[in-house]
Amino acid sequence: MPETTSGAAPGATTLPPDAALLPDGGGTRPAPDFSGWTCPAPLRDHPRVVMGHGGGGAMSAELVEHVFAPAFGGRVLSELGDAAVVLLGGARLAFSTDSFVVRPLFFPGGSIGDLAVNGTVNDLAMRGARAAYLSCGFVLEEGVETATVARVAEALGAAARAAGVEVATGDTKVVEAGHGDGVYVNTAGIGLVPEGVDLRPQRVVPGDVVIVSGAIGVHGVAIMSVRDGLEFGVEIVSDCAALGGLVEAMLAVTPDLHVLRDPTRGGLAAALNEIAAASGTGVVLQERSIPVPPAVANACAVLGLDPMQVANEGKLVAFVPREHADAVLAAMREHPLGRDAAVIGEAVEAHPGMVVARTGLGGTRVVDLPVGEQLPRIC
Protein backbone atom coordinates (compact mmCIF):
# COMPACT_ATOMS: atom_id res chain seq x y z
CA MET A 1 0.00 0.00 0.00
CA PRO A 2 1.45 3.43 -0.82
CA GLU A 3 2.29 5.54 2.20
CA THR A 4 -0.22 8.06 3.52
CA THR A 5 0.45 11.67 4.24
CA SER A 6 0.33 12.86 7.84
CA GLY A 7 -3.26 13.67 8.72
CA ALA A 8 -4.60 12.23 5.44
CA ALA A 9 -7.73 10.13 5.42
CA PRO A 10 -7.19 6.36 5.61
CA GLY A 11 -6.57 5.04 2.09
CA ALA A 12 -5.32 8.39 0.76
CA THR A 13 -2.07 7.99 -1.13
CA THR A 14 0.99 10.04 -1.81
CA LEU A 15 3.02 9.74 -4.97
CA PRO A 16 6.24 7.76 -5.10
CA PRO A 17 9.23 10.04 -4.66
CA ASP A 18 10.53 9.17 -8.13
CA ALA A 19 7.25 9.97 -9.92
CA ALA A 20 7.72 11.52 -13.35
CA LEU A 21 6.02 14.70 -14.50
CA LEU A 22 3.96 14.49 -17.67
CA PRO A 23 2.27 17.19 -19.74
CA ASP A 24 -1.34 17.70 -18.70
CA GLY A 25 -3.17 20.37 -20.65
CA GLY A 26 -0.38 22.89 -20.43
CA GLY A 27 0.60 22.02 -16.88
CA THR A 28 2.18 19.03 -15.25
CA ARG A 29 0.94 16.19 -13.11
CA PRO A 30 2.77 13.40 -11.26
CA ALA A 31 2.68 9.99 -12.97
CA PRO A 32 2.83 7.18 -10.39
CA ASP A 33 4.20 3.81 -11.41
CA PHE A 34 1.25 1.41 -10.96
CA SER A 35 3.34 -1.73 -11.49
CA GLY A 36 4.47 -1.91 -7.87
CA TRP A 37 1.17 -1.02 -6.23
CA THR A 38 -0.97 -3.59 -4.45
CA CYS A 39 -3.52 -1.23 -2.91
CA PRO A 40 -7.07 -2.62 -3.26
CA ALA A 41 -8.35 0.79 -4.41
CA PRO A 42 -5.94 2.77 -6.60
CA LEU A 43 -7.12 5.40 -9.07
CA ARG A 44 -10.70 4.85 -10.20
CA ASP A 45 -9.84 5.23 -13.91
CA HIS A 46 -7.25 2.44 -13.75
CA PRO A 47 -7.38 0.61 -17.11
CA ARG A 48 -7.34 -2.87 -15.56
CA VAL A 49 -9.50 -4.63 -12.98
CA VAL A 50 -8.10 -4.21 -9.47
CA MET A 51 -9.20 -5.54 -6.09
CA GLY A 52 -11.24 -2.42 -5.41
CA HIS A 53 -13.63 -3.33 -8.23
CA GLY A 54 -14.89 -6.18 -6.05
CA GLY A 55 -15.34 -4.13 -2.90
CA GLY A 56 -18.97 -3.10 -3.17
CA GLY A 57 -18.12 0.62 -3.28
CA ALA A 58 -17.85 3.27 -5.96
CA MET A 59 -15.47 1.23 -8.11
CA SER A 60 -17.85 -1.74 -8.11
CA ALA A 61 -20.74 0.54 -9.03
CA GLU A 62 -18.78 2.00 -11.93
CA LEU A 63 -17.92 -1.47 -13.24
CA VAL A 64 -21.58 -2.48 -13.16
CA GLU A 65 -22.77 0.82 -14.65
CA HIS A 66 -20.28 1.01 -17.50
CA VAL A 67 -19.58 -2.65 -18.33
CA PHE A 68 -22.22 -5.10 -17.18
CA ALA A 69 -25.48 -3.13 -17.25
CA PRO A 70 -25.04 -1.88 -20.85
CA ALA A 71 -24.04 -5.37 -21.99
CA PHE A 72 -26.93 -7.20 -20.33
CA GLY A 73 -29.70 -4.59 -20.38
CA GLY A 74 -33.18 -5.42 -19.16
CA ARG A 75 -35.73 -3.83 -16.85
CA VAL A 76 -35.30 -6.31 -14.00
CA LEU A 77 -31.52 -5.91 -13.87
CA SER A 78 -31.80 -2.13 -13.89
CA GLU A 79 -33.25 -2.22 -10.33
CA LEU A 80 -29.86 -3.51 -9.05
CA GLY A 81 -31.32 -4.91 -5.83
CA ASP A 82 -29.85 -7.57 -3.57
CA ALA A 83 -32.16 -9.95 -5.42
CA ALA A 84 -34.39 -9.58 -8.46
CA VAL A 85 -38.16 -9.94 -8.04
CA VAL A 86 -39.76 -11.51 -11.10
CA LEU A 87 -43.22 -12.76 -12.03
CA LEU A 88 -43.33 -16.39 -13.12
CA GLY A 89 -46.58 -18.30 -13.61
CA GLY A 90 -48.45 -15.84 -11.43
CA ALA A 91 -45.97 -16.12 -8.54
CA ARG A 92 -43.59 -13.39 -7.37
CA LEU A 93 -40.15 -14.96 -7.10
CA ALA A 94 -37.02 -13.47 -5.64
CA PHE A 95 -33.92 -14.66 -7.50
CA SER A 96 -30.29 -14.00 -6.58
CA THR A 97 -26.77 -15.28 -7.22
CA ASP A 98 -23.48 -14.68 -5.45
CA SER A 99 -19.87 -15.89 -5.62
CA PHE A 100 -17.59 -16.41 -2.63
CA VAL A 101 -13.82 -16.11 -2.66
CA VAL A 102 -13.09 -15.50 1.03
CA ARG A 103 -9.58 -16.05 2.30
CA PRO A 104 -9.01 -17.99 4.54
CA LEU A 105 -11.60 -20.67 3.86
CA PHE A 106 -12.26 -21.19 7.59
CA PHE A 107 -12.44 -18.40 10.16
CA PRO A 108 -13.84 -17.81 13.66
CA GLY A 109 -17.60 -18.15 13.39
CA GLY A 110 -17.84 -19.77 9.97
CA SER A 111 -16.37 -20.80 6.64
CA ILE A 112 -16.79 -20.21 2.95
CA GLY A 113 -19.52 -22.88 3.06
CA ASP A 114 -21.55 -20.94 5.65
CA LEU A 115 -21.08 -17.71 3.68
CA ALA A 116 -22.23 -19.33 0.45
CA VAL A 117 -25.58 -20.25 1.98
CA ASN A 118 -26.17 -17.30 4.28
CA GLY A 119 -25.12 -14.68 1.75
CA THR A 120 -27.62 -15.87 -0.83
CA VAL A 121 -30.39 -16.56 1.69
CA ASN A 122 -29.93 -13.02 3.02
CA ASP A 123 -30.07 -11.45 -0.42
CA LEU A 124 -33.47 -13.08 -0.90
CA ALA A 125 -34.59 -12.07 2.58
CA MET A 126 -33.81 -8.42 1.79
CA ARG A 127 -36.65 -8.58 -0.75
CA GLY A 128 -38.94 -10.22 1.80
CA ALA A 129 -38.60 -13.76 0.41
CA ARG A 130 -37.80 -16.90 2.33
CA ALA A 131 -35.33 -18.97 0.33
CA ALA A 132 -36.63 -22.30 -0.95
CA TYR A 133 -33.91 -23.73 -3.19
CA LEU A 134 -30.24 -23.09 -3.87
CA SER A 135 -27.86 -24.07 -6.62
CA CYS A 136 -24.21 -24.57 -5.76
CA GLY A 137 -21.16 -24.42 -8.02
CA PHE A 138 -17.66 -25.34 -6.81
CA VAL A 139 -14.47 -24.18 -8.55
CA LEU A 140 -11.61 -26.24 -7.12
CA GLU A 141 -7.90 -25.68 -7.59
CA GLU A 142 -5.87 -28.72 -8.58
CA GLY A 143 -4.00 -29.95 -5.52
CA VAL A 144 -6.44 -28.81 -2.85
CA GLU A 145 -6.96 -31.54 -0.27
CA THR A 146 -10.14 -33.54 -0.66
CA ALA A 147 -10.62 -33.29 3.11
CA THR A 148 -10.75 -29.49 2.79
CA VAL A 149 -13.39 -29.73 0.07
CA ALA A 150 -15.36 -32.13 2.26
CA ARG A 151 -15.22 -29.70 5.22
CA VAL A 152 -16.53 -26.88 3.04
CA ALA A 153 -19.31 -29.09 1.62
CA GLU A 154 -20.34 -30.27 5.08
CA ALA A 155 -20.46 -26.71 6.39
CA LEU A 156 -22.51 -25.63 3.39
CA GLY A 157 -24.97 -28.48 3.85
CA ALA A 158 -25.35 -27.79 7.57
CA ALA A 159 -25.92 -24.07 6.94
CA ALA A 160 -28.56 -24.89 4.32
CA ARG A 161 -30.43 -27.16 6.72
CA ALA A 162 -30.26 -24.54 9.45
CA ALA A 163 -31.68 -21.92 7.07
CA GLY A 164 -34.48 -24.26 5.93
CA VAL A 165 -33.33 -24.27 2.31
CA GLU A 166 -32.56 -27.20 -0.01
CA VAL A 167 -29.53 -27.43 -2.30
CA ALA A 168 -31.29 -28.63 -5.44
CA THR A 169 -28.60 -28.59 -8.13
CA GLY A 170 -24.91 -27.97 -8.51
CA ASP A 171 -21.75 -28.11 -10.60
CA THR A 172 -18.03 -28.72 -10.10
CA LYS A 173 -15.06 -27.44 -12.10
CA VAL A 174 -11.32 -27.86 -11.51
CA VAL A 175 -8.67 -25.36 -12.59
CA GLU A 176 -4.91 -25.89 -12.84
CA ALA A 177 -2.71 -25.45 -9.79
CA GLY A 178 -1.81 -21.78 -9.38
CA HIS A 179 -4.97 -20.61 -11.13
CA GLY A 180 -7.28 -20.58 -8.12
CA ASP A 181 -7.15 -20.29 -4.36
CA GLY A 182 -8.26 -23.68 -3.14
CA VAL A 183 -12.04 -23.38 -3.29
CA TYR A 184 -14.40 -20.82 -4.80
CA VAL A 185 -18.16 -21.24 -4.44
CA ASN A 186 -21.09 -19.80 -6.36
CA THR A 187 -24.67 -20.09 -5.14
CA ALA A 188 -27.97 -18.96 -6.61
CA GLY A 189 -31.27 -19.00 -4.79
CA ILE A 190 -35.00 -18.60 -5.35
CA GLY A 191 -37.84 -17.93 -2.93
CA LEU A 192 -41.41 -16.68 -2.88
CA VAL A 193 -42.22 -13.06 -2.03
CA PRO A 194 -45.38 -12.82 0.12
CA GLU A 195 -48.29 -10.80 -1.16
CA GLY A 196 -48.23 -7.18 -0.02
CA VAL A 197 -44.45 -7.08 0.51
CA ASP A 198 -42.61 -4.54 -1.63
CA LEU A 199 -39.09 -3.88 -0.36
CA ARG A 200 -37.04 -1.50 -2.51
CA PRO A 201 -35.19 1.75 -1.93
CA GLN A 202 -37.53 3.77 -4.14
CA ARG A 203 -40.17 3.45 -1.40
CA VAL A 204 -38.10 5.33 1.19
CA VAL A 205 -39.61 8.69 2.18
CA PRO A 206 -38.49 11.47 4.53
CA GLY A 207 -39.37 10.56 8.08
CA ASP A 208 -38.54 6.87 7.74
CA VAL A 209 -36.63 5.54 10.73
CA VAL A 210 -33.31 3.76 10.11
CA ILE A 211 -32.74 0.65 12.23
CA VAL A 212 -29.69 -1.63 12.28
CA SER A 213 -30.10 -5.15 13.63
CA GLY A 214 -26.94 -5.23 15.74
CA ALA A 215 -23.23 -4.56 16.07
CA ILE A 216 -21.42 -3.69 12.85
CA GLY A 217 -17.96 -4.46 11.46
CA VAL A 218 -17.60 -7.84 13.15
CA HIS A 219 -17.16 -10.09 10.09
CA GLY A 220 -14.53 -7.99 8.38
CA VAL A 221 -12.41 -7.66 11.51
CA ALA A 222 -12.75 -11.39 12.26
CA ILE A 223 -11.41 -12.24 8.79
CA MET A 224 -8.60 -9.73 9.12
CA SER A 225 -7.53 -11.07 12.51
CA VAL A 226 -6.98 -14.62 11.26
CA ARG A 227 -5.66 -13.60 7.84
CA ASP A 228 -2.94 -11.32 9.15
CA GLY A 229 -2.31 -12.96 12.53
CA LEU A 230 -3.38 -9.84 14.42
CA GLU A 231 -4.21 -9.98 18.13
CA PHE A 232 -6.81 -7.61 19.58
CA GLY A 233 -6.89 -9.03 23.13
CA VAL A 234 -10.14 -10.91 22.51
CA GLU A 235 -11.28 -13.33 19.81
CA ILE A 236 -13.59 -11.66 17.31
CA VAL A 237 -16.11 -14.09 15.83
CA SER A 238 -17.85 -13.49 12.51
CA ASP A 239 -21.54 -12.58 12.62
CA CYS A 240 -22.26 -14.87 9.64
CA ALA A 241 -25.93 -15.92 9.90
CA ALA A 242 -29.10 -16.42 7.87
CA LEU A 243 -31.51 -13.54 8.43
CA GLY A 244 -34.71 -15.04 7.04
CA GLY A 245 -36.27 -15.62 10.46
CA LEU A 246 -35.52 -12.10 11.63
CA VAL A 247 -37.08 -10.63 8.50
CA GLU A 248 -40.17 -12.77 8.98
CA ALA A 249 -40.52 -11.42 12.53
CA MET A 250 -40.31 -7.87 11.21
CA LEU A 251 -42.83 -8.47 8.44
CA ALA A 252 -45.22 -10.04 10.95
CA VAL A 253 -45.48 -6.59 12.56
CA THR A 254 -46.24 -4.93 9.24
CA PRO A 255 -45.63 -5.86 5.59
CA ASP A 256 -45.15 -2.15 4.94
CA LEU A 257 -41.41 -2.05 5.54
CA HIS A 258 -39.86 0.18 2.89
CA VAL A 259 -36.43 -1.34 2.29
CA LEU A 260 -34.03 -3.83 3.84
CA ARG A 261 -30.36 -4.21 3.00
CA ASP A 262 -27.60 -6.46 4.35
CA PRO A 263 -24.48 -4.31 4.61
CA THR A 264 -21.86 -6.77 3.38
CA ARG A 265 -19.09 -5.47 1.10
CA GLY A 266 -18.60 -1.76 1.71
CA GLY A 267 -20.34 -2.09 5.07
CA LEU A 268 -23.07 0.11 6.48
CA ALA A 269 -21.72 3.16 4.63
CA ALA A 270 -22.15 1.56 1.21
CA ALA A 271 -25.64 0.22 1.96
CA LEU A 272 -26.92 3.59 3.21
CA ASN A 273 -25.39 5.53 0.32
CA GLU A 274 -26.94 3.17 -2.21
CA ILE A 275 -30.37 3.56 -0.58
CA ALA A 276 -30.04 7.35 -0.38
CA ALA A 277 -29.04 7.60 -4.04
CA ALA A 278 -31.84 5.31 -5.25
CA SER A 279 -34.53 6.96 -3.13
CA GLY A 280 -33.49 10.58 -3.65
CA THR A 281 -33.65 11.24 0.10
CA GLY A 282 -30.96 12.26 2.54
CA VAL A 283 -29.99 10.18 5.55
CA VAL A 284 -28.99 11.59 8.93
CA LEU A 285 -27.29 9.24 11.39
CA GLN A 286 -26.62 9.65 15.09
CA GLU A 287 -23.07 8.35 15.23
CA ARG A 288 -23.19 7.50 18.95
CA SER A 289 -26.25 5.31 18.37
CA ILE A 290 -24.47 3.03 15.89
CA PRO A 291 -23.50 -0.18 17.74
CA VAL A 292 -19.78 -0.82 17.28
CA PRO A 293 -18.24 -3.43 19.62
CA PRO A 294 -15.21 -2.18 21.55
CA ALA A 295 -12.96 -4.82 19.94
CA VAL A 296 -14.00 -3.69 16.47
CA ALA A 297 -13.63 -0.02 17.36
CA ASN A 298 -10.15 -0.64 18.78
CA ALA A 299 -9.03 -2.68 15.77
CA CYS A 300 -10.31 -0.05 13.35
CA ALA A 301 -8.64 2.75 15.33
CA VAL A 302 -5.29 0.97 15.26
CA LEU A 303 -5.50 0.18 11.54
CA GLY A 304 -7.09 3.43 10.38
CA LEU A 305 -10.34 1.81 9.22
CA ASP A 306 -13.88 3.16 9.41
CA PRO A 307 -16.19 0.61 11.12
CA MET A 308 -19.05 1.79 8.92
CA GLN A 309 -17.11 0.62 5.86
CA VAL A 310 -16.23 -2.82 7.25
CA ALA A 311 -18.21 -5.81 5.98
CA ASN A 312 -20.95 -7.63 7.89
CA GLU A 313 -22.48 -11.03 7.11
CA GLY A 314 -25.30 -11.34 9.65
CA LYS A 315 -26.74 -7.85 10.00
CA LEU A 316 -29.38 -5.82 8.20
CA VAL A 317 -30.38 -2.19 7.99
CA ALA A 318 -34.06 -1.27 7.63
CA PHE A 319 -35.96 1.87 6.64
CA VAL A 320 -39.27 1.67 8.47
CA PRO A 321 -42.27 4.04 8.42
CA ARG A 322 -42.15 6.06 11.63
CA GLU A 323 -45.55 4.86 12.82
CA HIS A 324 -44.31 1.24 12.82
CA ALA A 325 -40.74 1.80 14.02
CA ASP A 326 -41.24 1.11 17.75
CA ALA A 327 -43.14 -2.13 17.13
CA VAL A 328 -40.67 -3.35 14.52
CA LEU A 329 -37.73 -2.56 16.81
CA ALA A 330 -39.37 -4.47 19.67
CA ALA A 331 -39.98 -7.50 17.42
CA MET A 332 -36.35 -7.43 16.27
CA ARG A 333 -35.09 -7.39 19.85
CA GLU A 334 -37.19 -10.46 20.62
CA HIS A 335 -35.30 -12.41 17.92
CA PRO A 336 -31.82 -13.85 18.69
CA LEU A 337 -30.32 -12.12 15.65
CA GLY A 338 -31.82 -8.74 16.54
CA ARG A 339 -31.38 -8.50 20.30
CA ASP A 340 -28.99 -5.56 19.89
CA ALA A 341 -31.06 -3.75 17.26
CA ALA A 342 -30.91 0.03 17.47
CA VAL A 343 -32.40 3.12 15.85
CA ILE A 344 -29.47 4.95 14.24
CA GLY A 345 -31.07 7.73 12.17
CA GLU A 346 -33.77 8.81 9.75
CA ALA A 347 -34.44 9.70 6.14
CA VAL A 348 -34.77 13.43 5.48
CA GLU A 349 -35.64 15.81 2.63
CA ALA A 350 -32.38 17.73 2.95
CA HIS A 351 -29.21 16.84 1.01
CA PRO A 352 -30.88 14.20 -1.22
CA GLY A 353 -28.64 11.25 -2.05
CA MET A 354 -26.20 12.07 0.77
CA VAL A 355 -25.57 10.35 4.10
CA VAL A 356 -24.33 12.44 7.03
CA ALA A 357 -23.56 11.57 10.65
CA ARG A 358 -23.95 13.80 13.67
CA THR A 359 -20.93 13.20 15.86
CA GLY A 360 -20.74 12.99 19.61
CA LEU A 361 -19.01 16.39 19.65
CA GLY A 362 -21.97 18.08 17.98
CA GLY A 363 -20.47 18.29 14.50
CA THR A 364 -21.63 16.72 11.25
CA ARG A 365 -19.59 14.67 8.80
CA VAL A 366 -20.36 13.18 5.41
CA VAL A 367 -20.43 9.37 5.29
CA ASP A 368 -19.05 8.65 1.85
CA LEU A 369 -19.56 5.63 -0.36
CA PRO A 370 -16.29 3.69 -0.12
CA VAL A 371 -14.20 3.93 -3.28
CA GLY A 372 -12.90 0.39 -3.21
CA GLU A 373 -12.45 -2.09 -0.40
CA GLN A 374 -10.66 -1.75 2.92
CA LEU A 375 -10.42 -5.53 3.37
CA PRO A 376 -10.49 -7.53 0.12
CA ARG A 377 -11.61 -11.16 -0.08
CA ILE A 378 -13.90 -11.03 2.95
CA CYS A 379 -16.80 -12.92 1.35
From TrEMBL:
<dbReference type="InterPro" id="IPR036921">
    <property type="entry name" value="PurM-like_N_sf"/>
</dbReference>
<dbReference type="InterPro" id="IPR036676">
    <property type="entry name" value="PurM-like_C_sf"/>
</dbReference>
<comment type="similarity">
    <text>Belongs to the HypE family.</text>
</comment>
<dbReference type="InterPro" id="IPR010918">
    <property type="entry name" value="PurM-like_C_dom"/>
</dbReference>
<dbReference type="InterPro" id="IPR011854">
    <property type="entry name" value="HypE"/>
</dbReference>
<dbReference type="Pfam" id="PF00586">
    <property type="entry name" value="AIRS"/>
</dbReference>
<protein>
    <submittedName>
        <fullName>Hydrogenase expression/formation protein HypE</fullName>
    </submittedName>
</protein>
<dbReference type="Pfam" id="PF02769">
    <property type="entry name" value="AIRS_C"/>
</dbReference>
<feature type="region of interest" description="Disordered">
    <location>
        <begin position="1"/>
        <end position="37"/>
    </location>
</feature>
<feature type="domain" description="PurM-like N-terminal">
    <location>
        <begin position="82"/>
        <end position="193"/>
    </location>
</feature>
<dbReference type="InterPro" id="IPR016188">
    <property type="entry name" value="PurM-like_N"/>
</dbReference>
<feature type="domain" description="PurM-like C-terminal">
    <location>
        <begin position="206"/>
        <end position="351"/>
    </location>
</feature>
